[in-house]
């Protein structure tokens, strides 16, 4: 009997060891996270933080990251004390968030950035190019010529008034770019910043006179669109689904991720990516709101694996042109890795940009 019991115990012991190894393997595959942090992010980064590889890479560094999305310019209106970090899409709203949260001067980080682009239906891009409003650099990529485009917008030009459009019955009504709401969304606000620069004789708007000078054009650009979505994700998804407007403002990262994940099918595969020849840089800025997340922004900026994953989601790591170019070589027919021919300008101050966005939506007053 003792011998039988001994054998049984030995079997159980071996089984227990196997079970521990099995469970241990499962545990390590999920990572070794020890610290849970909660943050509010721009919607364009939600796929990045949901990526299982990103989850594992963060867990290996001791983090479980839970996120909620918000328009970047609306984040400072949230109950920020409920979050460990905020991660808007540029430095301008980051400054407002830090001030509102009482952490002004906190060590923020800018892990990656993404320039604005206009994604266009192939027919729309060709008509723009034939009328001097854009320049094609290939079948699926080109440059939006801001001065002539804004001149056309200021004159309320319609597609029907552009020679060559009559062959494309889907191109009707006023020519405009569908954007997100500039009072809540970073992409919409930065587009206002870039267009105001062009309309202000290629100078950053910095005073009441500049606001008054550019406000009528900005109002036209926004009012013609009808209802506005609070973030970039909505108009982009409408476009790639085959609905939506023929010209849509997006982040390059959204396009690059779509291409690298081989999801550009149907009409989306024939899209043309137009880079505005004047743009405002958009460094995604990590703002720690407490001690728990104070090192997470630096980790996102410097960790080799996390930089690789950021590129996979279409973002350009800071000082990472070579990384981005290498990852997107086969999609050079759509993208402009070196940002050749693009004039990058500074954004107006938060106060001025807020006033410009308000005036664009028909809200009154200078700052």
Task: Provide a brief overview of the structure.
By secondary structure, the chain is an alpha/beta fold. The protein has 14 helices and 13 strands.
Give the fraction of residues assigned to helices: 40-55%
Main β sheet profile: 6 strands, mixed
- Give the overall average pLDDT: 88
The structural class is: alpha/beta
Lateral strand order in the biggest sheet = 2-1-3-11-4-12
First-last Cα distance: 91 Å
| N-to-C order of helices and strands | HEHHEEHEEHEEHHHHEHEEEHHEHEH
Extended strand count? 13
Portion in beta strands: 15-25%
Number of H- or I-type helical stretches: 14
Would you identify the regions where 5 or more consecutive residues have pLDDT less than 50?
1-31
Rounded Rg: 24 Å
Task: Report the principal-axis shape.
Answer: globular
Description:
With 367 residues, the chain is α/β, with parallel strands linked by helices. The protein is built from 14 helices and 13 strands. It has helices at residues 2-29, 46-50, 52-60, 91-101, 122-130, 146-154, 186-199, 208-223, 233-240, 252-260, 296-302, 304-312, 321-327, 350-360; strands at residues 35-41, 63-69, 85-87, 109-113, 116-120, 134-136, 141-144, 247-251, 272-276, 278-280, 283-288, 316-317, 343-345. The strands form three sheets. Strands 2-1-3-11-4-12 form a six-stranded mixed β-sheet. A five-stranded mixed β-sheet has the order 6-7-9-5-8. β6 and β7 (141-144) form a beta hairpin. The protein is globular. The relative contact order is 0.18.
């Amino acid at each position: 009997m003792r011998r039988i019991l001994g054998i049984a115990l030995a079997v159980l012991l071996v089984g227990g060891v196997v079970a521990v190894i099995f469970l241990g393997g499962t545990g390590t595959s999920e990572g070794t996270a020890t610290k849970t942090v909660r943050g509010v992010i721009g919607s364009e980064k939600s796929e990045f933080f949901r990526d299982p590889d990103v989850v594992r890479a963060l867990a290996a560094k001791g983090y479980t990251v839970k996120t909620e999305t918000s328009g970047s310019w609306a984040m400072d209106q949230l109950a920020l004390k409920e979050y460990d970090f905020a991660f808007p899409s540029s430095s301008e709203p980051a400054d407002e968030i830090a001030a509102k949260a009482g952490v002004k001067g906190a060590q923020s980080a800018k892990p990656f950035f993404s320039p604005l682009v206009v994604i266009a239906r192939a027919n729309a891009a060709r008509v723009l190019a034939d009328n001097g409003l854009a320049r094609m650099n290939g079948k699926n990529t080109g440059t939006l010529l801001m001065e002539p485009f804004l001149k056309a917008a200021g004159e309320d030009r319609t597609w029907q008034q552009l020679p060559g459009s009559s062959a494309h019955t889907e191109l009707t009504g006023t020519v405009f770019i569908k954007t997100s709401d500039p009072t809540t969304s970073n992409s919409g606000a930065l587009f206002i910043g870039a267009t105001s620069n062009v309309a202000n004789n290629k100078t950053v708007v910095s005073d009441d006179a500049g606001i008054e000078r550019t406000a009528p054009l900005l109002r036209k650009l926004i009012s013609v669109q009808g209802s506005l979505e609070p973030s970039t994700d909505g108009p982009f998804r409408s476009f790639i689904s085959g609905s939506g407007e023929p010209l849509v403002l997006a982040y390059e990262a959204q396009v690059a991720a779509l291409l690298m994940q081989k999801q550009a099918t149907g009409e989306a595969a024939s899209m043309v990516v137009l880079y505005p020849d004047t743009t405002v840089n958009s460094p995604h800025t990590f703002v720690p709101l407490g001690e728990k997340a104070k090192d997470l922004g630096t980790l996102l900026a410097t960790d080799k694996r996390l930089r690789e994953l950021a590129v996979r989601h279409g973002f350009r790591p800071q000082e990472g042109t070579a990384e981005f170019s290498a990852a997107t070589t086969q999609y050079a027919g759509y993208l402009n890795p070196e940002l050749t021919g693009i004039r990058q300008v500074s954004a107006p101050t938060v106060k001025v940009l807020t006033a410009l966005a308000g005036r664009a939506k028909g809200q009154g007053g200078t700052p």
